[in-house]
């Protein structure tokens, strides 16, 4: 177990045990330069399938469309470190998808030059 704890600390240095039995972990998960607060409450047998994941509202919002996947990964991950690695990868994907969804529109100059080019080619060429 000591090897797994060291690996967990190395992979998630901001997630720390909150009690001696190591059934409660609290801290942050980092993705794309941002930190998100979370708390993992494990049962006495330390099985993830019966664990509870408590998230900040920001993390909950980002992962809202991924609830089923998070639940599935909790059911099938052999230990907390494996789950945290998968959660981090999922968070990276969710953040990337959000960025693509909310990409800023092109600047006004883009539309001006587009209309100018269409005017040069002629509207009839666009069909």
From TrEMBL:
Q: Which GO MF terms does the UniProt record name?
A: ubiquitin protein ligase activity
Q: Where is the Fanconi anemia complex subunit FancL WD-repeat containing domain?
A: 6-92
| One GO CC annotation | Fanconi anaemia nuclear complex
Please give the superkingdom of this protein's source: Eukaryota
Spell out the Pfam families in the cross-references. FANCL_d1 (PF09765)
GO BP terms: namely: interstrand cross-link repair; protein monoubiquitination
Please identify the protein, giving its name as recorded. Answer: FA complementation group L
Q: What is the originating organism of this protein?
A: Macaca fascicularis
Gene responsible for this protein = FANCL
């Amino acid at each position: 177990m000591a090897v797994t704890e060291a690996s967990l600390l190395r992979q998630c240095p901001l997630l720390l045990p909150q009690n001696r039995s190591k059934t409660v972990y609290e801290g942050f998960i980092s993705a794309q330069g941002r930190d998100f607060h979370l708390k993992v409450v494990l049962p006495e047998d330390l099985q993830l399938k019966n664990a509870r994941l408590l998230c900040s509202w920001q993390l909950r919002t980002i992962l809202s469309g991924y609830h089923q996947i998070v639940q599935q990964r909790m059911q099938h991950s052999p230990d907390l470190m494996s789950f945290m690695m998968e959660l981090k990868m999922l968070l990276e994907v969710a953040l990337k998808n959000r960025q693509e969804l909310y990409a800023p529109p092109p600047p006004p100059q883009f539309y001006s030059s587009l209309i100018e080019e269409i005017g040069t080619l002629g509207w009839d060429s666009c069909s």
